[in-house]
Design brief:
alpha+beta, Glutaredoxin, 4-stranded mixed beta sheet, 9 helices, about 50% helix
């Protein structure tokens, strides 16, 4: 059964949601029958690198929030992350456009390393304070995920996977996704946001039960055809 997850590297709730979803998977007896696919979504595609010195300044200036309010919000998010076993360093976050990072994720997906790449990029952004728009940094992170250094470097120069990023973004819009994380189970049910693991488990069980009941053989309504042996009729 397919599970699709739309997320952005710069979304704290996406990282927290990943952990809670993983907690649900540990309790789900059929996890070996799931195909989990990460899909691209940019919360701020127009963000220019290097304009704001940190996330606190960005939120204060763009949202009009007092600095103290921003700090309280960051403390709340950091506390939520800690409950999920993550130790955010929000004060060290380097605000960056995540487009190149999404191209790297798409490349990793093609190599069967999508989940590893997501984890590495989340950690780099929220814990290690790395610039996930910088080519040199992304190259090292790609190598850490097991990708070829030269191939990653070339991809980042040519934006080889740009079309896949755009297709994910367009599909999200078609589904009505306007916020992330957004988990879609078997294109039948969805979980929006970093909900508790119990909520993920409940929807997984419901989706999987329905998926199992779906017919596995193709029902064909026969009509006039031509076959490979040259017979038509």
């Amino acid at each position: 059964m397919k599970v699709e997850i739309w997320s952005d590297v710069a979304c704290p709730f996406c990282y927290i949601g990943k952990r809670r979803f993983e907690e649900a998977l540990e309790q789900f007896p059929h996890k070996d029958q799931l195909q989990v696919e990460w899909r691209s979504f940019q919360l701020n595609p127009d963000l220019k690198d290097g304009v704001y010195k940190n996330l606190e300044e960005y939120l204060s200036k763009t949202k009009g929030w007092p600095v103290e309010q921003v700090r309280q919000i960051q403390e709340r998010v950091t506390s939520m992350a800690a409950d999920a076993g993550l130790h955010f360093n929000m004060e060290n976050t380097v605000l960056a456009n995540t487009y190149r990072a999404h191209c790297l994720i798409q490349m990793a997906k093609a190599a069967g390393k999508g989940d590893e790449m997501e984890e590495i990029l989340f950690r780099a952004y929220f814990i290690d304070g790395k610039n996930v728009s910088e080519k040199a940094t992304l190259t090292e992170l790609g190598v850490e995920a097991g990708l070829d250094r030269a191939a990653v470097s070339e991809m980042l120069e040519k934006y080889t996977y740009a079309s896949q990023v755009q297709l994910d973004v367009m599909e999200a819009k078609a589904l009505g996704v306007n916020g992330v994380p957004f988990f879609v189970m078997n294109r039948r049910y969805a979980v929006s946001g970093a909900q508790e693991s119990e909520a993920f488990l409940q929807i997984l069980e419901k989706s999987f039960a329905e998926w199992q009941q779906q017919p596995t053989t193709l029902e064909v309504n026969e009509g006039e055809t031509c076959t490979t042996d040259g017979n038509c009729g």
